Amino acid sequence: MRFTTTLRAARDGVFGIFIGSALVLTAALAAQDMMMMDADGDGLISYAEAVTANPDLSEAKFQALDTDANGGLDAAEMTLAREAGMMMSGG
Question: What is the reported pLDDT for 53?
């Protein structure tokens, strides 16, 4: 019984590390995208900046990604967009 419990704990630990690493990588890639796509350097990706890197991005999809409705995507919104597969790299 203890051996099985130890194996489960090891498996869960490895899985947790994998998920954590994937989230860190996604956030890092989103931050890189922000730097590449933010042409005016205001810290937000406007629709015009986003569509330059993602020509198939509709304004409706952009507005759905802009969860705070401020007209631009911040780092957190870019991370969510990347995780959802809705925003590709700017480079």
Answer: 84
